[in-house]
Structures are given as structure tokens and as C-alpha cells.
Write a structure and sequence with these properties.
This protein is an alpha/beta fold. The chain is 42% helix and 13% strand.
């Protein structure tokens, strides 16, 4: 397969792509591309599965009323140091100045090797490629609100510490933590201006509820809808903040125009998100289903067999009472004229859309 996916709709020479979105046909990637194109910004979209991925992205954009004529697509493989780009791709990407990396392997139950290859090595590969851009302005990777909170990230970790991290957090979250540290430690060495965006749980579009991502908190909504949530894990203060996908896309698109300096970190979440029991009660009332009355401490669930609890052990580290400093993100949002949509209504619309999509079965034809 050629490393470049060619289309009759390309970017004119006078409008070369200044923005590259790696992971453009993923959940966050497609909404970010939509936002950039809506702003009239020529975009290079890096997709992972060649012509099929590029065609699917274009169809999705057109279905959302977006003109994709100033978008070009290239095939990328973040597990390779050169991202799989050939000479033709490099020619298309020669004037890129802002690189958004939203590519990741988001799945529980991954092997450490698979998770590290995509989420840690992949993040570093994108950074190293970014450092070769002659007109570079900023790199904007997507990380996560539960990682990257240390002011002194370490990379690489000693082997024993790395094994302990993966054993404690599970492969997905550990690989995200490793990738975050790798990027933050390496970017200054390479002279790459960096803004790390750390979003909370990303839910659907604030107006339509559209999401197309059905794990994590969406899995809890599915259990609630199907009557398979006999108990909540955590306490009254357990906090899983959310952010609407359209707000996140607008925020990320604004970053290169607003941020300066070698490194910035933004925790992006809606601080008005209810604590988990209240969030579940809100959704149960909306969906007209029973609210679970039983509550189990996280420590108890950790000791019980998964076959009994039906709880993925990798999700337990997200069930925390922690709160997060959103000061820098709020400041950027104010400067860019951004406001979170009403969180209660966004949650309701998202839940309705999840049910309508049969939690992914409708989109896969299952």
C-alpha cells in the first residue's frame, strides 16, 4: 500500500497545510479536523488505515456539512520512527507548523507491549518527527487528566519501576503516563514548543450527543440502561469529570494561537460535573431506569473476583475523589471566548445518543 492516500480534492499549492492531525480518523481526531476546517484552516489528516480510513473521514465530514476540499490525507503508523511517511507525504507536509497528536490505543486489557508501542513509543515518534519541521510553531499532544500531574516527570523509568507502574495501573493508563513523561522530558531537549492537553472523560457533542466511543463511562451508562448495574463503586465524593467533544475540539484548535513558551499543560474538564453518584442519578432519571442504591468501596472491589463484580480492574484507578487544577485551561478558554456547554443537558443528550446507537452495535451493524 502506498504511504500516501491520493484524492482529487487536495490542497492547492497556495494553501499548503499548516496543521497536521495525527490520528485524524479517531473519535477526537475527526472532531478536531472538523473544527479546523470550519475555521478555514487547511489540514493534513494522518490516518492509520490508508484509503479506507481517508474515505471514511471524508464521508463523515461531508455528512456534517463540512467542506473538505482544503484537506489532504496521508497514511501514518505511529509505531514507526518516521511515522511511515514516504517522500510524497513529506512533500505534502513540508510547511506544517502545528502538529496535533490525538492518536492512541484506547482499550482495556491490552498487553504492555501493545500499549507501550502505541501510547508511549508512538507519542515519542510523533515528537521526534515534529522536531524536523522547519516552520514548526507548536506541538499539541492529547494526554489524560489522570497522568502528567507531576512537575518532575521521569523518562525512562528504571525497569523495576516501569513494571510496577504497569502492574498497578494496567497497561492502558501506564502507557499513557509513560508517553506523557517521554514527551515532556524530550521536547525541551529537541527544542519543540509543547502544549499537553489533558482532557477528562470525553463525552458526546453538546447539541447532538454524538460520540462513537463506547468504553469507560459509556460502559457504565450501558450497564445502567440494561439493568446490570446493581451497585456503584466508590464513595459519595467519587469524581469522574467530563468534557463535551465539541468543546475539546474548539479548545485544542485555539491552543497554537494562544500558547507561547517551551511547555504548557492544560487540564481540560468541566468542573461543574456532578460527583459520580449524582451523575448516575441524573442519567437514571433521564433514562427512566432504577438508581443503584448499593455502594461498594474501591478497595473492597479490588479484592473481589472480576467474575463476581463485572468490573474491569483497569477502571478502578479512575474512581478517585481527586480534583484537578484547570486554571491555565480556563484562562486560555476565556481568551478564546470558549464556554463549556451546560453539563447536565450534555450528559442527557449523550446518554440518549448512546441508547439510540445501541452502544455501538448500530454503527457496526451488529
Amino acid at each position: 500500500m502506498s504511504s500516501t492516500t491520493r484524492h482529487s480534492e487536495g490542497i492547492a499549492d497556495s494553501r499548503a497545510a499548516h496543521n497536521l492531525v495525527v490520528g485524524a480518523n479517531g473519535f477526537v481526531g475527526r472532531w478536531l479536523v472538523l473544527e479546523l476546517l470550519t475555521r478555514g484552516v487547511p489540514v493534513a489528516a494522518a490516518v492509520r488505515d490508508g484509503g479506507r480510513g481517508a474515505n471514511g473521514l471524508r464521508q463523515w465530514l461531508r455528512g456534517h456539512g463540512v467542506d473538505d476540499s482544503v484537506m489532504v490525507t496521508v497514511t501514518s503508523d505511529i509505531t514507526r520512527p518516521d511515522l511511515g511517511f514516504g517522500p510524497a507525504d513529506e512533500a505534502l507536509l513540508g510547511e506544517v507548523r502545528d502538529v496535533f497528536n490525538v492518536a492512541a490505543l484506547y482499550r482495556f486489557g491490552l498487553s504492555a507491549e501493545d500499549a507501550r508501542s502505541a501510547n508511549a513509543d508512538g507519542a515519542l515518534h510523533v515528537l521526534q518527527w515534529t522536531a524536523t519541521r522547519p516552520s514548526l510553531r507548536r506541538r499539541v499532544p492529547l494526554s489524560g487528566y489522570r497522568v502528567g500531574r507531576s512537575n518532575h516527570p521521569q523518562f525512562p523509568l528504571p525497569p523495576d519501576e516501569s513494571r510496577a507502574l504497569y502492574a498497578r495501573l494496567g497497561a492502558y493508563e501506564a502507557s499513557k503516563a509513560e508517553g506523557d513523561a517521554a514527551v515532556r522530558v524530550t521536547a525541551p531537549r529537541l527544542g519543540v514548543p509543547l502544549t499537553v492537553v489533558n482532557p477528562s472523560t470525553v463525552i458526546g457533542h453538546s447539541a447532538t450527543g454524538e460520540a462513537a466511543q463506547y468504553i469507560g463511562l459509556a460502559g457504565l451508562v450501558e450497564q445502567l440502561w440494561k439493568g446490570r448495574l446493581p451497585a456503584l463503586v466508590g464513595s459519595r465524593r467519587t469524581y469522574i469529570p467530563v468534557v463535551a467533544i465539541d468543546y475539546l475540539a474548539r479548545f485544542m484548535a485555539a491552543v497554537p494561537e494562544r500558547d507561547e513558551g517551551p511547555i504548557r499543560l492544560h487540564a481540560v474538564l468541566d468542573s461543574t460535573t456532578p460527583c459520580l453518584p449524582d451523575l448516575v442519578a441524573l442519567l437514571a432519571d433521564h433514562l427512566d431506569v432504577r438508581v443503584p442504591r448499593l455502594r461498594l468501596p474501591v478497595g473492597v472491589v479490588r479484592r473481589l473476583p472480576r467474575a463476581l463484580t463485572a468490573v474491569d480492574p483497569e477502571t478502578l484507578s479512575f474512581l478517585s475523589e481527586d480534583r484537578y487544577d484547570t486554571g491555565s485551561a480556563d484562562q486560555l478558554a476565556r481568551a478564546a471566548g470558549l464556554q463549556h456547554p451546560p453539563v447536565d443537558e450534555t450528559l442527557r443528550r449523550w446518554a440518549s445518543r448512546l441508547v439510540c446507537d445501541r452502544f455501538g452495535a448500530a454503527t457496526t451493524g451488529a
